[in-house]
Structure formats: C-alpha cells, structure tokens
Design goal:
This protein is mainly α and 414 residues long. It has three domains: 51 residues; 304 residues, no CATH class; 28 residues, no CATH class. The chain has 17 helices and no strands. α7 packs antiparallel against α11 and α13 runs antiparallel to α14. It is globular. The chain starts with a helix and ends in a 10-residue tail after the last helix.
Length: 414
C-alpha cells in the first residue's frame, strides 16, 4: 500500500519537479527518482521482513532455539539439500517441456537460468522473478523473452494446482491434533475453496486455448485505438499469442501428462526434504504432517520480502508447526533450517555461475528494471536492436542480416 502511494506521488509530482529546469537536468533528475523509487521499495520490504522477524521472535527463548539447532541431525539436512538441488533439475526439464510447442531449448541453459533466478529471489525477493524470463534469451538465442515469460506463467499455474492438490487431498487423511478441531475446520474449508479455484482456472485456460484466435483478433481490433499506446498494445498482443502457443500442450494428452508428471515429481522433491528436516529435529510428525507444513511454508514464500520471503516464510512455517503442537522455540529452529534448505542451494549455484563469469552484475542489474524488462518482452529476440551507422554501411548490413537470420549473407536486402 505504501509503495503504491509512493508511486502515485512520484507520478503526480513529476511535471512540477522538472518544470523549470533544463532538459538535461530533467533527465538526470528523472533517473534519480527511478533509482530512489526502486531502492525505496526494497528498503520498505526489508523493513517489513525485519518487523515480522521481531514480531515472531520477540517472545522466544533464543538459547532454546540455539540448542535445538545444535541437536539437529546433519545427515537428514544434507539429504534434504541434495534432493532440493535435484528439484532444480526437475524444474529445468519441465520448463523445456513447456517451451517445446514454441521453440527448442537447451536443458543446460534452462538449469543455469533456473538456479540463477532462484538466487535472485533469495537476494531481492519476488522482484527477482523477472530474471528467469529475461536471462534465458541471453543464453539461448532461440527463446524469445515473451515465450519464456508466458511459459513461466503456465508453470506457476501447474505449481499452484499441484500444491493445492497436495494440500487439499492430504487433508482427507490428515490426523487433527488434539484441541485443534475448530481451527482445522476453517483450514479444510480454505483448502477446498483453493481446489475449486484451481479447477476453474484450468478450465478457463482450456477454453482460451480453443478460442484463442478469436480472442486475439478481438483484442487487435479493440486495442487499435489512438488512445491506446502502441508499445502497450504490442506487449499485450505478444503475450496473448505466446500464451496461446504455450497452451498447445492442452491439445495433446501426452504432453499434459508429461508436464503433470514432472510437476508431481518436482513437488515430491520438495515434500520429501520437508519431511527430512522434520526428522532431523526428531519430531513425531508423519509424511502427511510434512505436506501440511509444506503448504504453510508455500503460503509464506509468496510474500515478496528480500531473502527468499525472509520473515514471512519463517512465521508461516513455524505457525504450521505450532498448529501441530510443536514448541515455539523448536518450531522457530525448524523454520530457520527449512528456509536455508529451500533457498541456499540456489545461492550456491548462483555464486558458481558468477565465479565462472556467466553473470555480469551490470547486465543482472539491467534486467531488474521494469523499463528494460518491457523492452525485452516487446522485442522479437533479446537485444535485437539494429544500430544504424551511415559511415559503416557494410557493418550495418552484416548486423541486419544476422538479426534477420538470413542464411546467405550475400542475399540482397530490398
């Protein structure tokens, strides 16, 4: 809410802030305002995470939390971390299946992009989500930014549906802790509503896939107005077309089963480590209980605070454990370890690619700005801009031929 107010203030005050200054000065001031706005959002989310940490931990006995951490079984924690690492590979395989109807892609580059993307989420929060669809086209030129973005949207839908199914179906076999019957009734109601919402969402996607040509044609006519910005119209239509292309998997039951299978394996590779972390603390919780805790942790991870939903993740995970009658201090210790198991491997992979020279800090920062992300999505291919130089006509011709992907460089361009 405060971020929205700040953005509104900047937009409202912009004409007055730069009205009486030279053009060059205005441009510099506008850049300063953009930088301040981006840092303001980050600082605000950081402070929010700190507030959650303080609110949750203000009444904890931290010596008891430290004792629980020292008593954790390192074997289970190591096994959980290895399975999470394998989960990144499963994400890459599924992403390749989702991209298949649109273009071919490299599994190696998909894995690198997946781990770097999750490292960005760990460092700066959910704002880092834009790294994956923007960074992949820089490494694999066959993939357009809009295609990567839309397939990630479909991936999120499968993830959401899978998580809801795990959570809601598990509630049918879940043993309610003593004294928690009333609260469990509300949780079960929410789980059923989420399951119905996921089913409705997939039904809507199936309908859109069948009538996509008519929807896109209507959108072209409806947005072909003088008051609609051309850039916004191009982005909107590009996303509709890429969504239609990515949903081609819904035409083939084999592809649907393939994506569903890899999604199931992926969430199993998250559920098992969750259970292993609970076993590391010698908690008497069954695998069904670990699925319940995983659902709470997933809700906490949605909050866009830096550090991989730091604070919110810990509070939600500990809340699920407290519901299972786990002591507050031990629940806090488990949430700390579980957060590290979930997110730290991606940070290690991100550091590996950084040391290899695959990540350029300037390019990485460039991708995180909304303006540059829009330009990449709008373009036909990453960095597909032709720079005209009348003094170097031959160089211009070669650049244009290369970007147009003409197989014969001697072909005359009219």
């Amino acid at each position: 809410m405060f971020i929205a107010y700040f953005d509104d203030f900047v937009e409202y005050a912009r004409p007055y802030l730069f009205l009486h200054f030279p053009c060059g000065f205005c441009q510099r001031q506008k850049r300063v305002v953009k930088i301040l706005r981006k840092h303001f959002k980050f600082i605000l989310l950081f402070l929010f995470a700190a507030f959650i940490f303080w609110f949750f931990g203000r009444s904890l006995d931290w010596q008891e939390v430290s004792r629980s951490l020292r008593q954790a079984n390192p074997f289970y924690i190591a096994a959980a971390t290895l399975i999470i690492c394998f989960g990144y590979f499963l994400r890459a395989v599924r992403w390749q299946v989702l991209l298949a109807p649109i273009t071919k892609s490299s599994l190696r580059e998909l894995f690198a992009t997946t781990t770097v993307g999750f490292a960005a989420v760990f460092l700066i929060g959910r704002m880092g989500e834009i790294v994956r669809p923007m960074w992949l086209p820089m490494r694999d030129k066959r993939v357009r930014p809009s295609a990567a973005l839309v397939t990630l949207g479909v991936e999120r839908l499968f993830d959401l549906a899978s998580l809801i199914c795990f959570f809601a179906v598990n509630l049918l076999f879940f043993t309610v802790p003593a004294g928690r019957e009333a609260e469990f009734g509300y949780i079960k109601l929410v789980g059923n509503l989420m399951l119905a919402g996921a089913a409705a969402g997939f039904a809507a996607l199936i309908v859109y896939q069948k009538i996509a040509p008519r929807v896109i044609a209507y959108a072209e006519r409806a947005t072909d107005k003088s008051f609609v910005p051309r850039r916004l119209r191009a982005i909107f239509l590009s996303l509709l077309r890429q969504l239609s292309a990515s949903l081609q998997i819904l035409k083939d039951w084999r592809e649907i089963l393939s994506v569903s299978f890899w999604t199931f394996c992926l969430w199993l590779s998250i559920a098992v480590p969750t259970w292993f972390v609970l076993l590391a603390f010698d908690l008497p919780i069954s695998f069904s209980g670990s699925l319940f805790v995983m659902g709470w942790a997933a809700v906490g991870s949605v909050v866009p605070t830096p550090g991989g939903a730091a604070g919110a993740f810990h509070a939600a995970t500990a809340g699920g454990l407290i519901f299972l009658n786990v002591e507050r201090e031990q629940a806090a210790a488990v949430s700390i370890v579980m957060h590290l198991v979930y997110f730290a491997p991606a940070l290690v992979f991100g550091l590996y690619y950084f040391l290899r020279g695959d990540i350029n800090i300037a390019s990485f920062s460039h991708l995180l700005t909304a303006e540059n992300a829009v330009e990449e999505i709008e373009s036909e291919a990453p960095n597909a801009k032709i720079e005209f130089d009348t003094k170097q006509a031959d160089s211009e011709r070669r650049t244009f031929v290369q970007q147009a992907e003409i197989p014969n460089p001697k072909t005359k361009i009219v």
